[in-house]
Write a sequence for this structure.
């Protein structure tokens, strides 16, 4: 199995675990765990396949992906209480999943269209949509709205992979450095609290209109 | 018209009615009723068709589905005040719609792929997504986050239909018992207050991190 | 370039600008601006293409659309503070974007299916989904739930374009009057505060159940 296939399964499995952890934070029942694991694990890749015109989508062609997500949901249901901080575990698993998923997304976008721009966009979308869907369904504040470096990590990972590929770097190496680049940025942001300068409001005449 | 076709129209019409009832609870105008009726009635089936690669989706091929949803939205606009408890009506219509929709979704998944796993997943997704979309757009707490048996009913209905089909039970009979199984479970959960054991938090060292 | 192409780019660019303005109201960083610009600018058209079976979707076939949205997101990042009321600017840009997008959506629906009903539905969906997605991701109350004339404007614009087309009016003229009709209604609603009669609750016996 190639490194890309490993990244594919790793990204899906890790996002599925974050979905199940979100379900544990909401104290759902077993079926709720499975639902969140499936939607979070497969959501980003589903949108990627659809916009690229690769339908039926990947998990319809290979139902193993669904079974993997369900198995992970069940394992988390029975083991999540062993973890000291489920939230910290969730964000770190999410960081590794993001790194794997952004490279896979870029690779599929590149294979389908040959366009580096599309590869970067599908990589970024793929890696961030699973978490966005999870937060939306769990009714938690989306990571999009926190002043954190999240989408940027996916964007850089996808761009590094795509750029390395354009320069003729072998696929397994390009995948590896793309995933590492994404993880270095997201992990650094989590560990050191890195942020970008955010938009600063200079109040106009009606500041009450600016929420 | 076959029993499956009846279930198809029934599921769509009932979900459209629940969408319009949600619009009535938000005191929207007539167009808001039509929008919620269309999105709730057609949402689940739209996602089902897209992931299966059956595009253009069903209501693009047959616009009658849109007109049915609009007609129901209009009827609800003028009659919802006659109902004593619109919320109770909504959840019971939703229960019947769920039962019809999960069998239809499984039947379409089976027809498109031949895979029982996919049939069960598309049946479950189809039946639950309309209500999830309705709650998301109406900014109400999603049924996903309530400790209720909801997705499970769709899952069982889809599985019973798919299993019966595998064992050679005729289509109309498999459809009927699948829908009845789903309704028995969802109806029982509503009437008797059945729930599953939910995940119970055993606090770790930082309980404030666990929301 | 035809009037339809102008409307296409105009609708996308204006919605991208409203997405970036929403990001400014949430005080996101530059990447957050780009993400909101891309999702709001391209979201409605993406759903339109998918349900019509036109995949890969338009921006995969022509990545310029993505670059336009990113450029607009960057411009807004550096200039939004110059605007006195960013919220007022957002809703007026949204009104013009809505007018352009509903005609484009109807034109694409008509070209793909030949059905006036589908044309009106895709026009309405296309024009309203970008804003709905933006509000959902930004965790702001959706325009759907406000007693405002919004979807109606998109519906009328799409219907006027489609009707004019059916009566043999040349394409550029039909596009123009469709867009003007939509803008007249949405602009009037914003300027004069027009609303439709909303659903009025006549309380039943359990008013506490009716939220």
């Amino acid at each position: 199995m190639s490194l890309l296939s490993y990244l594919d399964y790793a990204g899906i499995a890790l996002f599925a675990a974050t979905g199940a952890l979100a379900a544990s934070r909401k104290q759902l029942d077993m079926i709720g765990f499975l639902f969140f694991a499936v939607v979070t694990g497969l959501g980003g890749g589903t949108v990627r396949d659809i916009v690229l015109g690769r339908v039926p989508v990947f998990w319809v062609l290979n139902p193993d992906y669904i079974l993997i997500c369900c198995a992970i949901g069940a394992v988390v249901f029975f083991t999540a209480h062993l973890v000291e901080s489920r939230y910290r575990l969730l964000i770190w698993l999410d960081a590794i999943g993001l790194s794997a998923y952004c490279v896979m997304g870029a690779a599929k976008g590149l294979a389908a269209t040959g366009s580096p721009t599309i590869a970067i966009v599908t990589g970024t979308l793929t890696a961030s949509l699973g978490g966005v869907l999870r937060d939306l369904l769990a009714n938690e504040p989306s990571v999009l709205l926190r002043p954190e470096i999240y989408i940027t990590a996916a964007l850089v990972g996808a761009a590094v992979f795509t750029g390395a590929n354009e320069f003729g770097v072998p696929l397994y190496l390009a995948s590896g450095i793309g995933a590492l680049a994404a993880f270095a940025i997201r992990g650094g942001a989590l560990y050191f609290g890195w942020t970008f300068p955010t938009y600063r409001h200079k109040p106009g005449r009606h500041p009450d209109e600016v929420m």
Observations:
- Chain A touches chain C through 37 residues (CB under 8 Å).
- The helical segments of chain A are 3-25, 30-51, 58-61, 64-79, 86-113, 116-137, 151-166, 171-192.
- The mean pLDDT of chain A is 89.
- The longest helix of chain A spans residues 86-113.
